[in-house]
Amino acid sequence: MKNPDKFLSDSGNSGVYAAPDRVATLKKAAAVCEVAWMELDLKSVRDKAGFLAQCRSTFGFPSSFGHNWDALADSLQDMSWRAARGYVVHCRNGGAFSRRSPQDLATALEILEPTPAYWKTKNKVYLVLLDSETRGGREWANFPD
Fold first, then answer.
1. Distance between CA atoms of 26 and 12, rounded to whole angstroms?
2. What are the pLDDT digits (tens) for 127-142?
């Protein structure tokens, strides 16, 4: 990517993408742009409960987080405890989760998918980057070069 800082400064780029090969470059640019970078590592996640627990830990949800799908959707649209100019969620290592609980992964992706559109209306960039193990068998837009 030629201008990752410019890309991360434009809320119009919000969306869900197949993770680019050069994630490290984008992560460095996010730090420069004061965009929060969150690594949602699903390596040890096997089911819904594990996914929600990992989300709470990764996103820093408050102790009042309800540990259900509705609470996740609500919390993703209220990041008041983590103020930033924007957000990048790098979802990775979801292979075991996908194999053991494909329906839970599908539901998780259904909840993550509209989140960038919400933040776009707030003029904040919000990217969800999915590695090849975490795409739930779906095709996602390629990250722009």
1. 17
2. 999 999 999 999 999 9
∠ at Cα 111 (129, 24), nearest 5°? 15
* Average pLDDT by stretches of 10, the chain with 145 residues: 87 96 94 97 97 97 93 95 95 96 97 98 97 95 88
Spatial CA neighbour of 38 closest among 56, 25, 52? 56
Report pLDDT digits (tens) over 49-61. Answer: 999 999 999 999 9
Domain spans, the chain:
4-142
Q: In the CATH hierarchy, which fold is given to the domain comprising 4-142?
A: Barnase; Chain D (3.30.370)
90 DSSP assignment: E
Whether 4 and 26 have beta carbons less than 8 Å apart is answered as yes
